[in-house]
Design brief:
16% of the residues are buried. The chain has 6 helices and 3 strands. The chain is mainly α and 123 residues long. The protein has a 3-stranded antiparallel β-sheet with strand order 1-3-2. The chain has a single domain, classed as Orthogonal Bundle (Arc Repressor Mutant, subunit A), CATH 1.10.10. The radius of gyration is 21 Å and the shape is elongated.
Length: 123
């Protein structure tokens, strides 16, 4: 049987040069991503991502609902919801003894949904 030959395509430039106008234009805007890693850090935790996703499926959920959905205690659910709130991804309102959470805005919903679509496409 013939042996397969592995073709290696270099993934780096073979010469050291750069496009000054492109570099200058991008450098002028690169700091726009400062602190953005905090958003991704908040969603990098599997449980928090599930909580955020649950909040994309329903406009509002109480802490007890979230705990039941993710299979945790209300204390754990509350901890994750508070983290999302502190990061500006979720908001809450109190109704008597119940606390209801929702996503901060449509952008958060879009971020989670775009990530899901992307994952489905690369599978």
């Amino acid at each position: 049987m013939a042996e397969k030959t592995k073709v290696v395509i270099p993934d780096t430039c073979e010469t050291n040069c750069y496009h000054h106008d492109v570099v200058t234009r991008v450098q002028g805007r690169i700091n726009e991503v400062n602190d953005l890693e905090l958003l991704f850090k908040a969603l990098a935790d599997a449980t928090r991502l599930k909580v955020a996703y649950a909040l994309t499926l329903e406009n509002e959920l109480c802490v007890c609902d979230v705990a039941e959905i993710i299979g945790s205690t209300t204390a754990t659910a509350s901890h994750h919801l508070r983290y999302l709130r502190n990061m500006g991804l979720a908001k809450y309102r109190k109704e008597g003894k119940l606390v209801y959470y929702s996503l901060q805005d449509e952008h958060v919903r879009q971020i989670v949904n775009i990530a899901i679509v992307h994952q489905q496409e690369v599978k």
